[in-house]
Amino acid sequence: MEAVLATLRQRQRDAAGRAPRSLEELRADFVPADAIHPIPDDVRVTPTTAGDAPGYWLDAPDVDRTRVLLFLHGGGFQLGSLTSDGELAARIGRAAGMRVLFLDYRLAPEHPFPAALDDVRAAWTWLCAAQQLDPRASAVAGDSAGGGLAVSLLVATRDARAPLPAAAVLLSPTVDLTCSGASMTDRVGQDPISTPELLKRLASDYLAGADPRTPLASPLFAPLSGLPPLLIQVGTADLLLSDAQRLSSAASRAGVPVTLEIGDGLPHVYQLDAGAPEARAATERIGCFLRSHTAESDSSVPLG
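Below the sequence we write its predicted structure tokens.
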């Protein structure tokens, strides 16, 4: 991981002295990890439309195609795609023995809150209704902004009294758009990726004037009772450490089974750094969690 951290710190220094770039350039060049890690050649990638948004089925060899992981990428609600996060999604699917639906939800600032969440909710409805997914054989996972969207999906689905995924995996989730966690200040010297100013700007662009304490935008402020088991992974070198810690505490108080794993010295969404042993170990733990919390489907018919 030291080599990864060195790469991230150098990139942060280089960015500090660079002229501002357009959103199109930022999206085209978005590298949230130490490098872009391609989806392995043995993973079948199939485009689809999930509800109202484009997406991709990711099928590693020998996965159970009746068990589905809905994966929501990070990128501050403005960036991110199959290119940036597809390898991580496919790796988790392989470890869990599940096929993955990778969703290309709409991005801010062109499509502010609640557009992304609307796409995620529509995709979940599509899975359950049009695809006849057994919710007991499903889970949702997300990193960073995608982790926040995953929690918002659970809250909105519970409130609608609709079937919930059986479990959720949240990697450095963004769940407080007030940016008020203690780590937003006390981890500034350790985080090699983000700055408070960047995170506040991304939150503002996504909210477009909405109250940052709106529960479906900042699910830390939502009632959390009735949610399925959560696995939360975060590193100590992350401005969003407090988001993960406070979410874990709030969910536990609400009676939700929660496993919080904090990696000492690890950066934001360290699981993306495919070559790092810490990322591989985290992926295996995620796979075990998903296997233990998702049931075999009653259907023998693969989705898609």
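Residues 137 and 296 are 6 Å apart (CA to CA).
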